[in-house]
């Protein structure tokens, strides 16, 4: 009868230890005895969350870390010690860390999450590298805030499959689609734009094979002409979620979606409509426009505006779920 951890065979210990984080392995099991040491040091594909400077821990497991999360609430700078990294999440990333996200440091990186409050020279450089395929293994990316300067229309990034970005100009959406031909899921958080500079829209014809599109617009209505231009470039979308203030009748938007997206199967929304023309905006008639609109609900807000909501598809709030 097995009553002690040490009585388990090596194979079972390896299986058990795979579910334990690198930090817990280091502080709870390493140095127990030579056998446990050997097993722990032979592990691969470990996860590690760094929230303080621990050089011995990092040195012990650096080449075994598969998934890394770094919080910069402490003085943590270098992240270039993990050659087998597949997944990297950086919270409050600094410029030195962003500069270290390169192919020669992380050749196998597949997933990247970056939380930064502003665009910096280093974040622009990283985005340009990503959109020019300098990280060819990268499949999933959450890049935070980017701008038109981060994308060159002569670049090419065929590896990206799932992408989430924040931007202040809707033209960035089209630019991303032009340089990422194999993108399947795309989420854009369109933020308030204080700039008066008008960016010319790329005129290159776009017929993207994107399947899932999520658009969240903050602080301002989005012109219907802008929405129409976006829809024209993504005719193959099957899942869509929209969240913004609409300064036109919702029924007009619904008809546009039905006309442009012939393959639409699942639709979700959270849209506040400024006009209040109930006669031309009957919820029953809206649901009849397209089968994916059947779940749309309409309520009146405290200020008298109409709110249209629909839980279109599971995980709409989390593109990487």
UniProtKB/TrEMBL annotation:
Domain F-box per the UniProt entry, residue ranges: 2-54
Entry-linked InterPro entries: F-box_dom, LRR_dom_sf
Organism domain of life: Eukaryota
Transmembrane region(s): none
SUPFAM superfamilies: L domain-like
The protein's name: F-box domain-containing protein
Species whose genome carries this gene: Rotaria magnacalcarata
């Amino acid at each position: 009868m097995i009553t002690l951890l040490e009585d388990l065979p090596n194979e079972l210990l390896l299986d058990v230890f795979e579910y334990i984080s690198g930090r817990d392995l280091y502080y709870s099991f390493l140095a127990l005895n030579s056998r446990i040491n050997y097993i722990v040091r032979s592990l691969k594909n470990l996860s590690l969350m760094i929230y303080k400077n621990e050089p011995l821990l990092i040195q012990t497991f650096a080449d075994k870390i598969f998934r890394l999360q770094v919080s910069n609430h402490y003085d943590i700078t270098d992240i270039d010690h993990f050659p087998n990294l597949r997944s990297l999440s950086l919270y409050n990333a600094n410029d030195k860390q962003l500069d270290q996200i390169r192919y020669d440091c992380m050749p196998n990186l597949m997933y990247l999450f970056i939380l930064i409050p502003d665009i910096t020279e280093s974040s622009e450089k990283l985005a340009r590298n990503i959109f020019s395929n300098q990280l060819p293994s990268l499949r999933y990316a959450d890049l935070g805030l980017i701008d038109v300067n981060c994308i060159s229309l002569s670049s090419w990034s065929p590896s990206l499959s799932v992408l989430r970005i924040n931007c202040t100009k809707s033209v960035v959406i089209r630019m991303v689609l032009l340089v990422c031909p194999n993108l399947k899921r795309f989420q854009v958080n369109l933020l308030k734009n204080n700039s008066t500079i008008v960016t010319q829209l790329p005129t290159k014809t776009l017929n993207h094979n994107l399947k899932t599109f999520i658009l969240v617009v903050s602080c301002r209505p989005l012109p219907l002409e802008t929405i129409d231009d976006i829809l024209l470039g993504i005719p193959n979308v099957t899942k869509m979620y929209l969240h913004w203030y609409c300064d036109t009748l919702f029924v007009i938007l619904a008809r546009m979606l039905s006309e442009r997206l012939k393959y639409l199967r699942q639709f979700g929304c959270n849209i506040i409509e400024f006009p209040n023309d109930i006669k031309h905006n009957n919820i029953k008639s809206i649901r009849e426009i397209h089968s994916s609109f059947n779940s749309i609900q309409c309520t009146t807000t405290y200020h008298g505006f109409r709110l249209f909501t629909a839980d279109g598809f599971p995980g709409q709030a989390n593109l990487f779920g």
